[in-house]
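Tokens for chain A. Residues wanted.
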């Protein structure tokens, strides 16, 4: 099996990771940090909103089972792409909506789905999602990996503090 990678930021990585882990064709997910300029950031550093990183999920998938466009559909559905530097109660640049592409085919598909969603009229505000080339990815601390799954949860509840 030959797998590929996709990287998405859509707010707190716990819920985003769960959305992708429950998708057929996804082989693995890793919560982490990307898009910043500080090597080997920690959660505490990223939370200061000074490193430039976003909380992201790196998705490893089998393209013979699921296409990149299907992963994009999961991404668009799992958050509000019109919110700038936030999702729900989580506020800061680290919670920005971003698609980090691994090659020109992904970049083209990401931009095409973004344009199609904007043209659909389903959203009341402009899409804030950035589409950018993937750079360095730093895995988050172990306690962030499969956070919800380890706690027997299927989504972030109102009583949970987000990452």
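Reply:
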């Amino acid at each position: 099996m030959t797998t590929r990678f996709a990287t998405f930021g859509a707010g707190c990585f716990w819920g985003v990771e769960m959305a992708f882990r429950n998708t057929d064709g996804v082989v693995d997910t890793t919560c982490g940090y990307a898009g910043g300029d500080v090597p080997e950031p920690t959660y505490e550093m990223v939370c200061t909103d000074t490193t430039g990183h976003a909380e992201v999920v790196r998705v490893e998938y089998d393209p013979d089972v699921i296409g990149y466009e299907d992963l994009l559909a999961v991404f668009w559905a799992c958050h509000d792409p019109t919110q700038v530097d936030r999702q729900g109660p989580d506020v800061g640049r680290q919670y920005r909506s971003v698609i980090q592409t691994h090659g020109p085919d992904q970049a083209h598909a990401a931009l095409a789905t973004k344009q199609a969603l904007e043209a659909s009229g389903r959203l009341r505000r402009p899409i804030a999602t950035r589409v950018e080339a993937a750079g360095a990815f730093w895995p988050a601390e172990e306690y962030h990996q499969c956070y919800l799954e380890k706690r027997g949860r299927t989504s972030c509840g109102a009583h949970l503090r987000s990452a």
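The longest strand covers residues 26-34. The mean pLDDT is 92.
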